[in-house]
Amino acid sequence: MKVIGLMSGTSADGVDAALVDIQGTGHNLKIKLSAFRTFPYPSSFRVRLLHAMTHGTVADVCHLNAALGEWFARAAWKLLKSAAVSPHHVALIGSHGQTLHHLPAPRRESVLGAIRSTLQLGEPAVIAERTGITTVADFRTRDVAAGGQGAPLTPYLHYLLFRHPSRTRLVINIGGIANLTYLPARGSIDKIRAFDTGPGNMVIDGIVRLVTGGRQEFDRGGRLASRGKPDEALMRTLLRHPYLRRRPPKSTGREEFGERFIASLVKLGHDAGLTDADMVSTATAFTARTIADAARFLPGRVDEVLICGGGARNPTLMRMLQEMWEDTPVRAVESLGWDGRALEAIAFAVSAYQTMRGVPCSLPRVTGAKRAVVLGTIVPGR
Ligand SMILES: Nc1ncnc2c1ncn2[C@@H]1O[C@H](COP(=O)(O)OP(=O)(O)O)[C@@H](O)[C@H]1O
Ligand SMILES: [Mg+2]
Description:
Elements: E1 2-8, E2 14-25, E3 28-40, H1 43-55, H2 58-83, E4 92-109, E5 113-121, H3 124-131, E6 135-137, H4 139-145, H5 155-162, E7 169-174, E8 177-183, E9 193-199, H6 202-211, H7 223-227, H8 232-238, H9 242-245, H10 254-257, H11 259-271, H12 276-293, E10 304-308, H13 315-325, E11 330-332, H14 343-356, H15 364-367, E12 377-379
Parallel strand pairs: 1-4, 4-6, 7-10, 10-11
Antiparallel strand pairs: 1-2, 2-3, 4-5, 6-12, 7-8, 8-9
Bound molecules: adenosine-5'-diphosphate (ADP) and magnesium ion (MG).
Magnesium ion (MG) is lined by residues 9, 11, 13, 16.
């Protein structure tokens, strides 16, 4: 079966679109990536999207939901066109959408009690209408309704692709936020541990945007960071962030490591007389440290570390991670033949496939939900 997976991560850099061939039943799936592309948003759209995450009006949210639906539908169309595949041959689209807000910690509501919530935009009705293809979306909300964090959801795919009979593996996805999946050797699905470690590229991107006055969106090739020096005192201050000490299950987002955190880091850096390069270097070292430190929440040692997501393209970050793991090899998933940028999009293609078969692919021990649930909202195609 041909399935398209669509994803726009917390970096809000664009739509990742994967065309995936899936076969099989239960947790025994054969998964093959046959095409992958990223469709970046125009810079002005990205700016409005990031702005809406903290200061959006109800009208902004309403409009962006439909506009994102159109971007997702276009991404699906263009992917099919470049792969020379007709939409008639595609059975399903799994669309994650764009997280606008994520509030996994319960808030008290009178009469109702504790409420958790998460909001992904990118109207699936628009995607189904434009493509004619049955679309599954809103994967996180069902897990949240079942008492979970609604995140991370990619560990299921990590398990399908990377479990190993004799090696304990750690898969780390470095997107805007970083999340890790612990796959013990010979381990069954209920032995998986996974959670968000904290920022991935979010803090690095935010600082680069500030110090370059918006001319650069991220630290291409880790070049700025490699020219500076991490400031130890500032690192210690940053590492006191309460999220980093919280025990899993846990998940985070822009609410905790976005604009406000970045602005305070830049202020502290300026007060300490750091150069722009030192500041980016400190943010990169801080990010690497939070990822490596998260290993303290794991039940055992790991034999290898596999990196995916945009962060794998930052050599300075990769070098710092390897230094922190010392003798344990740290490699990009490309070394196993997978395109690390595509994994999240593949994950939502696989989730859609499982949803149509009634197979749960949330991991309650990972998200903290009361039970494993079949994820998503289904919008029929034509
Ligand atoms: N060549 C590169 N050099 C440095 N960083 C990069 C490079 N390519 C991508 N990135 C980083 O990866 C981020 C996008 O990663 P991605 O996995 O798409 O995140 P998300 O899932 O949050 O959208 C960019 O914002 C940037 O920080
Ligand atoms: Mg992205």
